Amino acid sequence: xxFLELRNVSRSFGVGExxxxxxxxxxxxxxxxxxxxxxxxxxxxxxxxxxxxxxxEEPTRGEVLIDGVSLSRLSRNEKARLRRRTIxxxxxxxxxxxxxxxxxxxxLPLELDGVSAKxxxxxxxxxxxxxxxxxxxxxxxxxxxxxERQRVSIARAVVGERRLVLADEPSGAxxxxxGEAVMRMILSACKxxxxxxxxxxxxxxxxxxxxxxxxxxxxxxxxTTAPPSPESFLQPLSGLEDPSSGx
Amino acid sequence: xxxxxxxxxxxSTGPKYGLQLKQEFEATTGDVWPLNVGQVYTTLQxxxxxxxxxSDDPGSDSAHNSFLVTPSGEAELSRWLxxxxxxxxxxxxxLVIKVLCALKVPGVDVTTVIQVHRRYLVELMQQWTRLKEDxxxxxLSFALVVDAELFRLDSVARWLDAAESRLRRSSMEPRNExxxxxxxxxxxxxx
Lengths: 247, 191
Ligand SMILES: Nc1ncnc2c1ncn2[C@@H]1O[C@H](COP(=O)(O)OP(=O)(O)OP(=O)(O)O)[C@@H](O)[C@H]1O
Ligand SMILES: [Mg+2]
Known about the structure:
The complex is a heterodimer.
Chain A: E1 4-13, E2 20-30, E3 35-39, H1 46-53, E4 61-66, E5 69-70, H2 76-85, E6 87-90, H3 102-112, H4 117-130, H5 146-158, E7 164-168, H6 176-191, E8 195-199, H7 203-206, E9 211-216, E10 219-223
Parallel strand pairs in A: 3-8, 3-9, 6-7, 7-8
Antiparallel strand pairs in A: 1-2, 1-4, 4-5, 9-10
Helix pairs in contact in A: 3-4, 3-5, 5-6
Chain B: H1 3-11, E1 16-17, H2 18-28, H3 37-49, E2 53-55, E3 66-69, H4 71-81, H5 94-104, H6 110-135, H7 140-172, H8 182-190
Antiparallel strand pairs in B: 1-3, 2-3
Bound molecules: adenosine-5'-triphosphate and magnesium ion.
């Protein structure tokens, strides 16, 4: 069964002349352990899709199910608990708390969820270390570079017993090596059964996902099928000689 | 890709046999570019003819000989390593030509054509990334080869993104009467 399911989800903003259909009848399901990337041009509805999947916003039409339960049937409190415990969210603008250090930002959701301060800190430190930030753990967000803040927010989204990670452009401010570290971290969460949806317009990063969904004008227009096997493109080198080499 | 120079590079650490060169070439390129042993022998014969390598037993069957690089072979290798390949002339890219042609064909939705190619590129990239996930931590050459391929495919995917947004914008703008883009008109006049 899918862990996350969007059924015919639409979302519009404004009315009349100013009405924008940000999503139109989107269906999407992600199995536990599934890793889906969503690609699409700016304004195609990627962030809207993610905020609705994360119960931060309501769809205008359609239904969102998490672990088989329709979000429309949950109370405010139940939704808040779901967001704190089950869903890890990486916002496009990182959303770190300015008064907390990097490691405190990472462990906050764990502590809110009843994990002891000491244990939460150890888990937080491990996650930061994996992203190469061990020596920045006691810095405040305004003492971190954009890419460092981004990695802190990813660490925060994957720690604990998350079952769904939703990340909006998680590598926008990162160079390719750090972008790769982030995707590896999400992938290793998926290997333990976490479902993940990552929004990106970078094909390099999207290629870490098992499935890539293409969004345009609020609709899913295409998605990848099983990729071709490596043997099909690893062929003996022949006819590729540089003519100037004298061969 | 020059097998000739790759062989000179492999010989720079000491004399080697043809079969050994084939195996080392494949290992150095992360096993991404299999090489047939016949190509290695042909290349060695030509390198010998040009005085860039020497065999320990000239005139006999190259399969049983070991080869070493000569001083002029070393000079050639150094020249090659430090000479940028010719990237100045744009290659005749088949994908670019397909998209340009699609613009001319009535009833063809260019955005759909672009998406077909984009999906194919992303699927290929997924495959390369999969290889990296399994092995790249252990083998530097392999990781470098895979990265090179991913960046190459990525640049094509980015070009498709740029083409799509350019199309979108141009469909919203009024056409200039001649139909020819301004920049191209200017370049034509320059010539
Ligand atoms: N609160 C809002 N009020 C009005 N329109 C909105 C609102 N939020 C989003 N939109 C519109 O909905 C569309 C989709 O926005 P969304 O933020 O989902 O795009 P996106 O794909 O995430 O783009 P980007 O790549 O630039 O982040 C856009 O046209 C946007 O202007
Ligand atoms: Mg967005």
